[in-house]
Amino acid sequence: MVYRTYLKGMKEGIPVGLGYFVVSITIGIAAKQANLTPAQATVMSLTNLTSAGQFASFAVIAAGAPYLEMVISQVVINLRYCLMSCALSQKVDPKLPFYHRLFMSFGITDEIFGLSISQKGRLDPWYSYGAMSVAIPGWTLGTLVGILSTSVLPQKFLSAMNMALYGMFIAIFMPAARENKILLPIIALSMGLSAVFHGLPWFGFISSGMKIIILTLVISMGAAILFPVSE
Question: pLDDT digit string (tens) for 163-176?
Answer without folding.
Answer: 665 665 676 667 76
